[in-house]
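Q: what does this look like with cytidine-5'-triphosphate bound?
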Amino acid sequence: MNGTEAPIRVITYGTFDLLHGGHVKLLQRAKDLGDYLIVGVTTDQYDETRGKLNVRDNVMTRIANVQATGLADEIIIEDYEGQKINDIQQHNADIFAIGSDWLGKFDYLNDFCKVVYLERTAGVSSTQLRAETLGITRLGVVGTGRVTNSFIPEALKVSGLEFESVYNPRASAAQIFAENNGVHQHFCDYPAFLDSVDAVYIASPHEFHFEQIKAALENGVHVLSEKPMTLNAMQTEFLYSLAHERQKVLLEAITTAYCPGFIRLVALARSGVIGTIKCVDATYTRRAESPARELMSPYGGSVTELASTPLLAISKILDATPERTSIDTYTAPEGGVDEFSRINLRFEHAISSITVGLGVRSEGHLSVTGTGGSIYLPAPWWNTTDIHVRFEDPRRDQNYHFPFAGDGLRYAIAEFVSMIQNKRLSTYKMRPKDSLFISRVIEEFRLQNV
Ligand code: CTP
């Protein structure tokens, strides 16, 4: 630049997780394209919404690391899709630079400035560093049914995992599952299976959960259990104390608990924005593809199959112990299980209800009633994407929208893996007391109705 020319302003973006040599080279070459370098660092939330679920460094650390390179003249944060167009104009950028892994993806920015793709440095990436520094968790899956089939593609979205083994007491089922899903080993012997893995995902029929989780924890294996973890509170309590004693992660895989929208719902409800909460109502019904098993097994039925998720919402939003439980349920004649049920939970300062049904369809919404307003989640509220906060004066109403990727299980798996790798034994997203709350109600239902 000579004295009369305006400085050339370059802008670039990245997550810059576990800042590495490839990042530094990219920043250096971006800076060399002009005189002033602006670096956009993604927020944790933005990364989560775009499916980068296992970023190790939080945004403050990532910004500090970029700053420490001494290459950035200015650092901004990137928080939403499409923001680059606004930033380029607002910061008068002349050049947008990005690594060649994005070749062609940002051509649309040519309308606003010059787009330059810089050759990516070979042999290094944050993904690779995350795996090297934390190791790979060898995962085993227990059960080969419908839920497990959706687990595999979801788990593939989470880094730091390897599908090591599958267990099914029927050897042929385990073998077919392993072959179809690229799982290395298959077992019909549970202890041998446990010896082959660091962590398990338990998706067997409910009645086997307790013994399988117990054996896994005793074997030093971390556990992600399908819901409900057990069908009685004493068993759930026992398993959490065992996990604590063995210093292993034990987590219940209620997808909703880990998805960004639901986490915001709980925070909003508990923030007092709608005043004191007086009532929570949640409905969850499913027209099952193969209702026979869910309705015929003595451990099936609408409550064991579906109640965990609405009960989770009540546990998280009211965070109290119910004083009274009343249950109304319809059980098919000829010895079937409950097909639809309503459970009312009375608390000291609030009331709540859940409505669950198998083989029926109801509008699956959730509403929270407060002294100052209400919160409404439209169906299907358990895949939380939309939150409406409503007031007497509609001009104050607020609507929020959140991403919900795939069938959501990836959020639970990401939390599970992050807990294992960071040696974090608990998470606010799904607390032992939430699992216990759910177990207690399911147990009470079964005592009265089964
Ligand atoms: N980059 C690079 N060379 C590498 C890795 C990244 O030039 N070996 C560039 C990217 O192309 C991008 C910037 O650095 O322009 C920030 O990339 P980021 O996605 O944060 O880093 P990655 O290592 O690619 O992260 P991940 O493995 O999580 O995708």
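The first helix runs from residue 21 to 32. The domain at 135-255 is CATH 3.40.50.720 (Rossmann fold).
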